[in-house]
Amino acid sequence: MRVTMIGSGYVGLVSGACFADFGHDVICVDIDQRKIDALNANKMPIYEPGLAELVDRNVKASRLSFTTDLAAGVADADAVFIAVGTPSRRGDGHADLSYVHAAAKQIGESMKGYTVVVTKSTVPVGTGDEVERIIREVNPDGEFGVVSNPEFLREGAAIEDFKRPDRIVVGSDDPRATDVMERIYRPLSLNKAPVMVTSRRTAELIKYAGNAFLATKITFINEIADLCEKVGANVQDVARGIGLDNRIGSKFLHAGPGYGGSCFPKDTLALLKTSHDYDAVQRIVETVVAVNDSRKRAMGRKIITALGGEARGKTVAVLGLTFKPNTDDMRDSPAIAVIQTLQDAGATVKAYDPEGMEAAKAVLDNVEYCKGPYEAVAGTDALAIVTEWDAFRALDLDRVKGLMNAPVLVDLRNIYKPDEAKAAGFDYTSIGR
Ligand code: UDX
């Protein structure tokens, strides 16, 4: 099949490269000439394990190419995927659909022959109708179907998630379009990933409901962790104890500093906006959003408590800045609120992250960025681990202690055992243990 991706960002690039690897002919389009030039030189605009090799292999096999020429990319395509950004709109929290609508218009102007237009970007319920209307308006005689096909890719594991998905959701009200989608995903359905065909609006809602449920699961265990601290229980054992119940499931029950990233915060807000518009307010999700927001700053205060209640004049080392490991993404990272809370209380912050420091510099001022974990901890009064990068899991605790002014360790991801940290002479605080 001939597949075109509009938008060569995170989702478009990973999906495009994976489709090419299945043997489809893929063109990835982006308006950013520098990004396309970089991709043509096999330089990845994002950090994602395995992506550069995947792109290189498929470019060499002539199944994958990059261009800024949308019209040429769309003309011969069997399916055109819209994978542009849908950031939260400033002011009202609604998803900003201007890029999606602009893409729809350009696709309508350029398509030839029957074309399936697929929204892969996460878009509010009803966006498919609007995409269809826009295309119809610019191309009244055009033959096309509009489909919703949400992505469920985790950053850092995106290629694995694409190639071995739990399910593929195709929201289509047009049998001809459904048939094209089934052919595109055939290599995956042969691998036994169920392709679930639903109405278009249902598919759009599945994406939001899925992310809101996962955000709820995380927030639930985070609050249970707070209770564990008060009653002297261990949240990891509670999570295991409930997670072994198949009805609950063991994943997404790691207590931590609150969820962040490019999806959960934005998608929960967008779901709430839709729920208000349709007068079906989602009170559970509303609470999840509020609890998660306040948790991030509460984690900063937890570090101040570990410092003895006073941050002024103290220096804190923060290890891990990205919202999770194996990404360079700082969007809505808990580290931002944690560091700002420390700075507001008068502390100086030194920080290190294996991949996120460039992005961190754009959002965090007055931080001393260090070259490695040991440089970061030198001369500090507390060490806070905020993101669980593997590189922080086996620190030489004796060396760390020797470099610090005071051996205070606040482990917001529970990557150390309390006993080992205490045995190494640390005043150790973690989450829910
Ligand atoms: C998420 C969804 O998993 C994916 O299906 C969707 O398509 C996009 O959004 P992503 O944002 O890449 O993916 O990250 P994910 O691994 O899901 O983690 C999100 C946040 O939750 C991170 O801040 C992570 O640290 C936090 N988290 C996750 C926890 O605090 N505890 C957990 O148990 C799991």
TrEMBL record:
InterPro entries: 6-PGluconate_DH-like_C_sf, NAD(P)-bd_dom_sf, UDP-Glc/GDP-Man, UDP-Glc/GDP-Man_DH_C, UDP-Glc/GDP-Man_DH_C_sf, UDP-Glc/GDP-Man_DH_dimer, UDP-Glc/GDP-Man_DH_N, UDPglc_DH_bac. Residues 317-418 form the UDP-glucose/GDP-mannose dehydrogenase C-terminal domain. GO terms for molecular function: oxidoreductase activity. Pathway: Nucleotide-sugar biosynthesis; UDP-alpha-D-glucuronate biosynthesis; UDP-alpha-D-glucuronate from UDP-alpha-D-glucose: step 1/1. Its EC number is 1.1.1.22. It catalyses: UDP-alpha-D-glucose + 2 NAD(+) + H2O = UDP-alpha-D-glucuronate + 2 NADH + 3 H(+). Pfam families: UDPG_MGDP_dh, UDPG_MGDP_dh_C, UDPG_MGDP_dh_N. Keywords: NAD, Oxidoreductase. Transmembrane segments: none annotated. Belongs to the UDP-glucose/GDP-mannose dehydrogenase family. This is UDP-glucose 6-dehydrogenase. It comes from Sphingomonas immobilis. The lineage of its organism: Bacteria, Pseudomonadati, Pseudomonadota, Alphaproteobacteria, Sphingomonadales.
